[in-house]
Amino acid sequence: MTSRRKPLVRGESLAAAGFLAPSFVGLLVFAIVPIIGAFVVSLLDWDILTPPRYVGLANYAEIWRELTHGETLRTVLLNTIYFTAGTVPLAMAISLAIALLLNRRLWGVGAFRVIYFLPTVTSIVALSIVWRLMYNPDYGIINRFLRLFISHPPGWLADPNWAMPAIIIMSVWTGLGYNAILYLAGLQGISSTYYEAAKIDGANAWQLFRHVTWPLLSPTTLFIFTMSVISGFQVFTQIYMMTAGKPTPQTMVYVYHVYSEAFTSFRMGYASALAFVLFLLILVVTLGQLSITKRWVYYGG
């Protein structure tokens, strides 16, 4: 019996390998090889136009000096943290509220689910252009509306005090649909028996949310929070399309700084080293998040 089963197991293994091969080749060619190549470049002094020169860890040493004694990189990092801290909690709270509303059995709720999800499938470049026009201080629709109530509305993207909040508002709106759908899937995966048991014990609406919904949504919350933080640290397109890092340095974020060093200053080695430092930073933050999950994430049945 065992000898008959060996060819079957071998055939299943070969079939599985055949199905996995395209994905593995794609991962190797478009992810692993470029990562290795970028690390090699981070050890070079290279401006694209002249032959590269090996400098070892000099680029990383320069990053350390800039962090400890300079201002630009620290400002860039603080701006990135500011963007992430301003976007993630607000987007998650609003997305959860929308998901709770969409989880009700109401007329037309399916259409609202599609409407909220539309920004997610729309090009972020197109959305950035539209929001840049909306934020225009002279003819933008936002300031036209605000002039009904105040005489001097903000300059938004041209104002150093409002440029980053404006991008945060746009980014929160853009990500609402995706997070709301994830929360909605989590809500629909919660068995109604939990709510029935809690109601029998006399729980009100807030107690149902606090002691049933929120704990059972904690795995979904962990996933959304982790992915949102990673996305926040990698923000680029909105900055590039809406402000190009101006008014300097209020909207100069980390990835835009990497882009600027690589394709404006042509310091490819230094830019690659910056990218690897960002990778390590995101790795540390993500591992830190996962290390505390046992305190608040409940994987209930």
Q: What characteristics describe this protein?
A:
301 residues, mainly alpha, MetI-like fold, two-stranded antiparallel ribbon, 14 helices, 2 strands, 73% helix, 1% strand, globular
Describe the structure.
This protein is an all-alpha fold and 301 residues long. It folds into two domains: 1-42; 58-296, MetI-like fold (Orthogonal Bundle), CATH 1.10.3720.10. It has 14 helices and two strands. α3 runs parallel beside α7 (163-188) and α10 (218-233) packs antiparallel against α13. 23% of the residues are buried.
| CATH-derived architecture of the largest domain | Orthogonal Bundle
Order of helices and strands: HEEHHHHHHHHHHHHH
Strand-pairing-aware structural class: mainly alpha
- Assigned CATH class of the largest domain: Mainly Alpha
Largest sheet: 2 strands, antiparallel
In what range is the share of β-strand residues?
Answer: under 5%
Query: Count the helices. How many?
Result: 14
**Rg of Cα set:** 24 Å
Give the beta-strand count: 2
End-to-end C-alpha gap? 38 Å
Topology:
Elements (H helix, E strand, L loop, with lengths): L1 H41 L1 E2 L7 E2 L3 H12 L2 H31 L6 H13 L2 H11 L6 H6 L16 H26 L3 H9 L4 H12 L1 H16 L3 H6 L11 H10 L4 H24 L1 H4 L5
Antiparallel strand pairs: 1-2
In short:
By secondary structure, the chain is mainly α. 73% of the residues lie in helices and 1% in strands. The protein has a two-stranded antiparallel sheet with strand order 1-2.
